[in-house]
Amino acid sequence: MGKGRLEAFSDGVIAIIITIMVLGLEAPHEGTLAVLERMAPVLLGYVLSFVHVGIYWNNHHHLFQAVRDIDGTVLWLNLHFLFWLSLLPFVTHWMGASGFATAPVSVYGVVLFMCAVAYALLVHRLASRRGGNRTLALAIGADRKGWISLLLYACGIGLGCVQAWMGLAIYVIVALIWFIPDRRIERHVADA
Q: How large a percentage of the chain has pLDDT more than 70?
């Protein structure tokens, strides 16, 4: 089965997710810069979520450059991933509107954790398919970055229940780990 429709659909959903997040930012009615200070949690939450969505979009793009074919399971796993990603606008808005209260920060972490789980399931299904996806399997290897991210998200959820800023710090660390593009797939696709 070809992968073109899956890629186009995923790109569209991700674009809509970003659009919903930015539309959730209400322009202040005051004409002063001081209002932006009061909006800091909302703006910082948006930036953090935008970075996470951008990282997933970038990695999703690279992932499917190394894939030759897909099957019905991949379609469902991709929808599973997009479902969790689509919850980011809601939890981002809740987290920012609450001023980074512990419950929304922890729930935000749960959504990030589930995005990572869903993405890992998608990657591992693609890498385990026989035939044309051998390049991806070689590139992914043991996927230490993925496993470390899951562990950090779990820690962030727990720490976020105690002190919101600790959970947020963990989520930023995961973003920083992935912000530098993962060249494993690019190297293996170029060599293939």
A: 88
